[in-house]
Amino acid sequence: MAFCAATPTPLAQYAKLLRTRPDVAAANVGEGSPRYFPMYTVPLRTLLEMKRVEPHELLKAREVLVEFDQSMGNAAFVSHQWISQLHPDPEFTQMQVLQNALQHALDNMQEIPLDSVTQWSTPTAKPLRTLELRSKPLFLWYDYFSCPQLDRRSNQLQGAIDSIPAYVEACAFFFALVPVVENPESSQLFTPSTWSERGWCRLERVCRELSQEESWIMVKGSADLELKLGSGTSMGEGGVGEGKFTVPEDRLKLLPVLLAAVRRKLFHLLRTGDFVGYRVLLNKQAALFRGLPLEEFLQPIPTIDPSDNEDPRSLVAKFFHQNGFTGISQTDHGGWTPLHYAALAGDTLLIDGLLKQQADPNCNSKKGQPRVGLAARTSPLSVSCLFRHHAACRLLISAKARVTAGFLQPPLLMAATANDPEGVRLLCEANCSPDQRNFLAVSAVEAASTYGSLEAIEELVSQQQARGDAIDLSHSLHWAMLVKGGNSEVVHRLLDLKADVNDQSFDWPRRTKALRVLCMLIVLQHRCGNVNTMTTQVYHAEGATPLMFALISSQYEAAASLIANGAKLDLQNARGWTAEDFVRDHDVPDFLQAAFAGGVGRSAECRKVSRLSLQSNDDGYVAMYL
């Protein structure tokens, strides 16, 4: 009996065309991101010998700079904040951290460990072997060295800006240099949180996540490096256009840069047959370009269909055409249905069209999607909540999407993670309890604390108070110290809400039988030598204080604020460890070294750091050449 093969979708046909027709691929993808200014770099040995940070023109005149070509070895892109208006690092503070971190990684580390978000969300992920850093000569791209500085209105400078995707694409490694430092005037503090808020720093990070090498390395201290894998580690932080800019008009400068990077990535994913990655990026454009004046999203698959964009059936047909779907209930290799991708796009007309064709608003994903930080068994409503698509959320709720459903990531926890008070409000108005917990007994306010989502915390507290109850904040400080929620503003607000700075009752590993088994396995890993941030947190959880968790996860700004607000240094956890034990033999910032050194006024530097981080910091300084 003969069987007819299924007709390839337009998506599959076009992907094949890109692979087999170099002319078509070149017309859409090119031979690489274009460079409008040479890629000037500094050899590693030269950088390690530097005593001050000098501008591009001086280094070029002394023939220190090297125009990089990949035949020479590997390059590394260094993203950082400028800590002065006219100079990125006038006291050589950040650069010395980078020098020490690189030397430490090359001499003393076998691998750069994964960050705790990746450890929890992607158990199969692997650390970066430092052998890869040593395998070839290393050259570093750093804006003040690599771009014209003395004439900031020159065409060459604009060419360098437009070349950022090409520079990132050419780099085997990407370093985010984010130590906790203050500016020379002692009026401003720069931290990992402030770096992640800057629009230009976000652009650099997103360009890395859109390159073929998606991983990047965060450098928090001289011996404190962690590997992050893809955009899932940045969940809840918002888009590039929602970042902070010293000059608001810079948003217009970055739009064509980001647009070119997204376009290239889409065609690369098509050409390599990664249809799941293609669908994620295609439908993530609404979130990626939020805050930017983009009139029309990219639609790579050619079409000549002139049908009405307002007609639901026509919209669904076009969506199927671009995404390669053939049925409403189809699940792709990534475990998502068409409705999941429509929820990611936040397109209400499309969602309505899918629902009218009997798409199930409560269908759960079959697999996790690390590109957006979402686990298996996640609903379309949770997807829309994470990306703050409020109209889409309302539409799904009106279609009977369950607001309380969800395994690890129910809708309310996603809105809390995304720091979205409006999302929290509309879910609570749909009868979702503000104290909802997921399968692992994590509450919405704990999820918000974990990601430093202060506005979501406020809304959850308000919603619970409106019901006549007080929300449980007993372990919120611990959760804020687990991953990246630790900043001074969150610490102070949680303390205002009566969280205990010296609480030792963290009970999450014992909340359910499943958790007890899971945590026993993690403790066993730790005892067998598989020591990382996640296993250390679980191994030392019983009796731990928030300060201990902050030190384990290297959240130094938060640690300073906890000490400034009365965190005791001599308390012991159930394993007999004090806070000082977690920093012994570690190169922590000076303000923490002073706190643990003892003597009168030992917390004075921590109080200063806490005060600086709370001061108005609307925009700060970013690389002024941009």
From TrEMBL:
<dbReference type="Pfam" id="PF00023">
    <property type="entry name" value="Ank"/>
</dbReference>
<dbReference type="InterPro" id="IPR002110">
    <property type="entry name" value="Ankyrin_rpt"/>
</dbReference>
<feature type="repeat" description="ANK">
    <location>
        <begin position="542"/>
        <end position="574"/>
    </location>
</feature>
<keyword id="KW-0040">ANK repeat</keyword>
<feature type="repeat" description="ANK">
    <location>
        <begin position="334"/>
        <end position="366"/>
    </location>
</feature>
<protein>
    <submittedName>
        <fullName>Ankyrin repeat protein RF_0381</fullName>
    </submittedName>
</protein>
<dbReference type="InterPro" id="IPR036770">
    <property type="entry name" value="Ankyrin_rpt-contain_sf"/>
</dbReference>
<keyword id="KW-0677">Repeat</keyword>
